[in-house]
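Request: Could I get any protein with tokenized structure?
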Amino acid sequence: MSEFLFEIGVEELPTTEVPGIVQQLSEKIPEVLNNEGVKFETFKIFIAPRRFGFVLGGLSESTPDKVVEKKGPAVNVAYDKDGHPTKALLGFLKSNESTLDDVKIIENYVYITKVQKGAKTEDVLKRIVPQIIQGMRFRKPMKWGDGKYEFVRIPHHVLAIYNANVVDMEIFGLKASNKTVGHRFVVDEYFEVGSYEDYIEKLTKYYVIPYIEERREFIVKQLEEFEKQGYEIDKDRSLIEEVAILTEYPKMIQGEFLEKYLELPEELIRTTIKHHQRSFTVKKHGKMTNLFLAFIDMPEDVKGNARKGYERVINARLEDARYYYEKDVKVPLESFNEKLKEMVFQKELGTLYDKVLRIEKIAKVIIDILSLHKRSDTILRTARLSKADIGSHVVYEFPELQGIMGRIYALKDGEPKDVAWGIEEHYSSDPGTIEGAVVGIADRIDTIVGNFVIGNIPSGSKDPYGLRSKVDDIYAIIEKFSWDLDLKPVIAAACEELNREIPQGLYEFFENRFELYNSRLRYDIARAVRELWNRPLRGILSAQAIMELVGTEEFEHLLVGFERVHNISKKHDSTYFDSAKFVQEEERELFEKYIEVKPVVLDNIKHLNYKDALAKITELRPFIDKFFDKVFVMAEQEDIRLNRLGLLKTIDTLFSEFGDLSLIEKVNRERDS
């Protein structure tokens, strides 16, 4: 079996492009090879800052022969009146390298059947690999050669070998060879490789780890070795990934910053070191130390110059952080709200201070609905201070600390802990405080409604303001706190604060997200409860209760009975009926059972006990069956017909407390068919 190794050497890759490169290669190469009929056993992608490529192992020597059937002209076009072949037929045969002996007639058309010989795998690779590479797309590609070429970065070499032989291909004007380069700080010259094994061996010798997952493991291993000395390291996954992407040979070095900076909040130290120097902070016995760990892209730190460079820059950045922090703590957190009056939230939605005032008003509505009046003071205080730290000097310099600095400054000001943590947590989809949860919902509702009001509505894959995730967060928070919150009055309050009507499509947007939120259970159940979107907790609990019963014989029978009730009454818009007008015993029995069941069902729902509510409503099933077996609903006498429809509409309304059960797939019916 054969082997193919491909590498394209480029200038430094941006970190943002790496995931896209891996995804495109992993999808496109197997797809194209399968379409071409090329068989392979192994496929591995490698990527480093100055190169990426792949290796294919266990390749078939050629693609299989294919029987190809081609349709030609109609018979009356292919032959003249004397039965002789026309120019149309002869031209068709010539273009397909066929003869009259290959012709057969099917349904008044000429067809030829040919055996198309398979192609050599090397020839297929020679043709498709340049197409795949040149067809890749990037966020911010570079152009060169007077705009003739466009790629992620300017390429410097192409390596392509099939069974140790160079494949004759050209990409971006570069002829393929069997040469590559090692680490730029180790060897400047190109060297030859004869196979994938040889390639890995020589790259390792010249300090290049081509696989990102191996660099990841190498980084973690070095960090864990350091921890054996009694230290704890914040092994941030995103930072490990970033370092792995940025380096060909990540080598750990240890440095120190001045101890005086340990007086700063840990979060400020960690952010300064992580975000601005891609380094790891170190703790001992749970306390921050003045050590940091960085990774250089070279085998060793000659003369300690890299360490000195890191120390110099980190100390300078921490000095800046200290300056801004000390400036901030001289004034109360609330004073920064004045700066918010000059900061635009969104062009047509006013300033950040305007947003804070709206959040307060919306939070009041939520407090009233949920009867959270005992926490009213701390919730509204959290709302008032929720965005204040955006006006601080530290957050201006370190925007990733938004919310965190609000919590730190609030505690320094003596604000209650729930207020301080609420300020930080209102940005989270998993807040731990009631304050953070209420203000988080209010903040998101304001953003969603505001963007719909001014026409910033998500479409397709475009959602620049993250409105979809904000709705999902609202549902997650409500579920976590088990709040029976009706979102409609909250949305109405947000619209009122903007002096606008409820925007078209807003309810549908929430409804669609609610269906997706519940699709973790079952898609048909998610569809059934989507109409309960505005009382999300009820919809979630209903979905869970249905999930427990769905598939049981009793519930399946109930679904059939409900469907009969729903279908016949859905166009009837009145629940009025008079029990004195019942003619048949089955009508009275169904009504009496409904009167018995209804208060128990509604009381269970009121107490959010959907499991017992659903179990109780299933008691209607035999009475519904009996009713439809014996009673003709669409009676000729109008008052009797309307009375029966009113009864059924009333029962349908009770069922609707659980959603639209007609959308749930019926297992038994599928089995019967």
User: Anything to note?
Assistant: DSSP finds 27 helices and 20 strands in the chain. The mean pLDDT is 93.
